[in-house]
Amino acid sequence: MKRARLGRLLGTSVLGLAGRLPLAWGASGWDELNMPRGVTGASRHIFALHMMALWVCVGIAAVVFGVMIWSMIFHRKSRGAVPDVTLTHSTKVEVVWTAVPVLILIGMAIPSARLLLKINNNTDAQVNIRVTGFQWGWRYQYVGSGVSFISKLSESSNAARQLNSGISPTSVPHYLLSVDHPMVVPVGEKVRLLITSVDVIHSWWVPDLGVKRDAIPGYINEASFTIAPNRPGIYRGQCTELCGRGHAYMPIVVHAVTPAAFQAWLKQHSGAQDAAATHTPAPAVTSS
Ligand SMILES: [Cu+2]
Questions:
Q1: What is the mean pLDDT of the chain?
Q2: Ligand 1 centroid to 116 CA: how many Å?
Q3: Which CATH architecture has domain 127-277?
Q4: Which of 111, 163, 213, 281 is the most buried (most CB within 10 A)?
Q5: What is the distance in A from the centroid of ligand 1 to the CA of 91?
Q6: Residues 6 or more apart whose Cβ sits within 8 Å of residue 282
Q7: How close is the Cα of 50 to the center of ligand 1, in Å?
Q8: Rounded-to-integer distance, Cα 86 and Cα 183, Å
Q9: Distance separating alpha carbons of residues 243 and 199, to the nearest angstrom
């Protein structure tokens, strides 16, 4: 009777804990050590693949370290263990320790290759943006619309980063992760980026979008993403190719807005020249 009650109690508390775990995990901040799930189909798939690979690694580590620790404890010299000097060759063992890792690698390579093909499909995009990296900022040109502007580190971050500025970086919101003119894109529509550079190699990286692509002078690299329709918001990234003195000062900010707001923004800026286009703020979005 007592035992049954204890069992029930344990059962409900375990269930309750399991239910609350994702919430608690999210609130604890520990998940910030992991890569973000992101807001595009590609980023979610990349996250799932990463978790699959992680658990395979955890499983292998558990087996390998388990055997090691078990051997060290139960077959130590002080217990009278004598090394086996006759085991110099065993075909059976060699086949097993070759075949098992090969099978594991194949098991991981198939979904990886499939996902690579999927996320590199840049056809049927509704919005095309030419992204040009330079020392140190980004130029965004919306193909076919005449909208073109330069995106640089925000004034507040730039002021704080100066030597002896006296401004504490912690007092600047999104220090080194905010820009004067963000890229604006619609949610729910496929956006294709044509990425290049005019000086050295840069790399356009926004983790939440699952996009990281090198910007190489003389080449045009493609990337595309579709932000989930229910995830308008502000997404931040950085240049991830060491490109010189100002490498840390060319962040990327993407404002994802509804298609209607995007069309309005595009219309408002079309035909405007760089300087003029840059002086109207992007449409407001709710931060997610
Ligand atoms: Cu760069």
A1: 87
A2: 25
A3: Sandwich (2.60)
A4: 213
A5: 52
A6: 181, 182, 184, 255, 257, 265
A7: 26
A8: 67
A9: 9
Residue 9 clears pLDDT 50, i.e. is over it: no
Ligand 1: centre distance to CA 202 (Å) = 4
Distance 62 CA to ligand 1 centre (A): 40
Cα 161 to middle of ligand 1, angstroms:
17
Task: Please tell me the distance between residue 97's alpha carbon and the centre of ligand 1 in angstroms.
Answer: 44
Separation of alpha carbons 190 and 40, rounded Å: 10
pTM: 0.78
Q: How far is the CA of 76 from the centre of ligand 1 (A)?
A: 54
121-149 confidence digits (pLDDT tens): 999 999 999 999 999 999 999 999 989 99
pLDDT value at 206 more than 90: yes
Question: Percentage of residues in the chain with pLDDT exceeding 90?
Answer: 74
Distance (angstroms) between ligand 1 centre and the Cα of 155 equals: 18
Q: How far is the CA of 249 from the centre of ligand 1 (A)?
A: 8
Question: Could you tell me whether strands 221-226 and 190-197 are parallel, antiparallel, or unpaired per DSSP bridges?
Answer: antiparallel
For residue 199, report the distance from its CA to the centre of ligand 1, in Å.
Answer: 10
Domain ranges of the chain: 8-76+91-119, 127-277
Give the lowest-confidence range in 83-92, 136-145, 153-162. 83-92
In the chain, the percentage of residues whose pLDDT exceeds 70 is: 84
